[in-house]
Amino acid sequence: MNKEKLKEIHSKRFLSDRFKEVNFEDQNNLQFFLANYELNGKTIIEGKCFTNKSFNSWWYYRFKSVEQFKERC
User: By residue range, what is the domain housing residue 67?
Assistant: First the structure.
């Protein structure tokens, strides 16, 4: 698949501005995104995982800490 097609797929994903891409070693065609923000005085940590060619997330979870997110990835 060419890079232009991949960019089109990535742009159509439902990700808010809060999510930032996180890179790990040995990602195996997976992309991970992390959102870390405050809501009503609580810290919210959300993570999403996509395969390179998918529009829908493979998984979407809330975590208690960034370390839990890293373990899941």
Answer: 3-72
Instruction: For residues 14-19, give the mean pLDDT.
Output: 83
Give percent above pLDDT 70 in the chain: 96
Number of structural domains in the chain = 1
* pLDDT given at position 1: 56
Secondary structure (H, E, C), the chain: CCHHHHHHHHHCCCCCCCCEEECCCCCCCEEEEEEEEEECCEEEEEEEEEECCCCCCCEEEEECCHHHHHHHC
Q: Which two tokens stand for residue 27?
A: 């990602």
Q: How far apart are CA 60 and CA 3, in angstroms?
A: 25
* Contact predicate 20/9, CB 8 Å: no
